[in-house]
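Forwarding the complex inputs:
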Amino acid sequence: MFEYTITSKNGRARAGIFRTPHGDLQTPVFAPVGTQATVKTLTPEHLKGINASLVLSNTYHLYLRPGDELVREMGGLHNFMQWPNPMLTDSGGFQVFSLSKIRKIDEDGVTFKSHIDGSMHRFTPERSIQIQNNLGADIIMAFDECADPNDPVYIQKAMERTHRWAVRSLNGHGRTDQALFGIVQGGVDPDLRAQSAEFIAALPFPGIAIGGLSVGETKDEMYKTLDVVTPLLPENKPRYLMGVGTPEDLINGVLRGVDIFDCVLPTRLARHHAAFSPEGRLNLMNAPFARDPRPIDETCDCYTCRTFSRAYLRHLIAAKELLAGTLISIHNLRALIRLMEKIRIAIADGTFTEQAPQMLAQWDNNAKRAKTT
Amino acid sequence: MFEYTITSKNGRARAGIFRTPHGDLQTPVFAPVGTQATVKTLTPEHLKGINASLVLSNTYHLYLRPGDELVREMGGLHNFMQWPNPMLTDSGGFQVFSLSKIRKIDEDGVTFKSHIDGSMHRFTPERSIQIQNNLGADIIMAFDECADPNDPVYIQKAMERTHRWAVRSLNGHGRTDQALFGIVQGGVDPDLRAQSAEFIAALPFPGIAIGGLSVGETKDEMYKTLDVVTPLLPENKPRYLMGVGTPEDLINGVLRGVDIFDCVLPTRLARHHAAFSPEGRLNLMNAPFARDPRPIDETCDCYTCRTFSRAYLRHLIAAKELLAGTLISIHNLRALIRLMEKIRIAIADGTFTEQAPQMLAQWDNNAKRAKTT
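Prediction (whole assembly, two chains):
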């Protein structure tokens, strides 16, 4: 179980297969985020229709609502939300640090206040793993401490605690049908990152995540950090860059040897009427789209692009119809999943490093903001 | 075109086929409402999946936004919203009277204020038909005046004007690929209803609608009105009871010779977490459903019931996930469409009038309010 086979390499980029109890995962892969046991506004059928393979869900949210015990009683997360393919849960650490009012971090764990009802809760590495065992995803994450990237003293302390918690997470893990990944921390300090990569790489995790990026550092800092970390990681384990990202981050991540990505960006943009396209990121509410009979992207094979005009999508947005968010989410997710499919083919063909600058140029327009038209 | 063939009869109930340019409509039929060129939160694929045949859209809303000229430019309503099967538009009259601040009704038409931006607009019978010609539905409606059912003097005046407007609607209709239906008015006064039925029946409409019901009168008044009207209508034209209704209204309507129904009830209930079930109408937010592994209705063949537990639906509602509305809408619409399928089979078998009391008893629980569990 959890064997990772590299099927081809091109520069530092790798294409491979990670075996899980819910099927083989072809990497590099982009995972849609289903925060509350649902990728917002989409059914599992929609996800199958865009060839999604791995879906992420959030331990912090599911622990608070509906509760991990309830999910376990309902047959686990796969059965509860009826997603038959591989799933991943995070440890809850990141949301504790970003969403809740933290009351106390100590060596043993974190006491925090629910962002929903203000009730008090406590996560420790053992508790996070127990909750993730109840949820039952194929890939689960060690409990880590996420530090402010601009506070070097705290970064080091948090990294060291993350290492101790990594060992406790491993010891607390009881299910052989779930792959527990360790997490490399260390902010944007190359020495700390190297130290963390070596520590985590030496532990018997079947996969390794890179945490604490895409939290305010520059793109350059992110890519330099990857340049430090991935060469220190074992070849035969998948690497997961958490919470990343934009199309150009995916291309740059794969170029640096990353295999797994997740991000809320495609679905969040969709709910704000922004769509990825070869012309750049489109704000579909803009007036010129009112009579535009073309699909979002004429080269896209998704249900939305095969079926609906920009004019119709713009009408749904103007009329405040929720179907707009569903249809644009389908397209934006498919755009990133299709990008990963193209990258996998290019790695297999040995042409990815050669094609990457062109791919980056194509996605450059989509990076930051909507076009004015 | 627009031939109506009765394939079997049982008492006053009829089963038949109405031919339209977008396919044959099997009657009796229940039409989901797609107010703004979308059945709220559902894709056309969802509608095909529940065997929806006829979809209604609202002329008032589409005229204001995105505009009927724009819809025509985009290839008409079928192409705009990508619904390949039969469609129906109303005349806009009912919404002018219920949603907008009316400024002036005169013999020629109605001047009204948009509920969206307060701008002024005018509908006449000719204008309503022209707008509906632009929208391009298979079945369109004569422009009528909807009167307060509790004002007998106004009811008569409005009915007489509706008759004059019916003639003007016919004269204003230019497309042979759209069936224009006349509308019987007259409140709950049996004499006025009889007079209106005879007047409208004498005009060359390919189908006849019964308007002004389900607007505050009692169920008894509605059924008595149908008992007056339908016997006066020609056998070989389909009869459409506008804006009705609840499951028991559908059964009672078919028993009285009605062929076509539409109502927002199933989708509106769904967005308020209420689901039709054999146990009665369920409020899925209620606590006992949190750990209920059963589908909404074990006998239902819809995607929602084939796939998801009440526990999952309850979680989506509690977590304010919009997917809840989508999934419950699929079920509620399928429940009424399946009811109509059963009724068609029972009419063909000659057992509908016999089965009707049992069908009514089964749906009785769903009639008014959610169960407390």
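Residues 275-363 of chain B form one domain.
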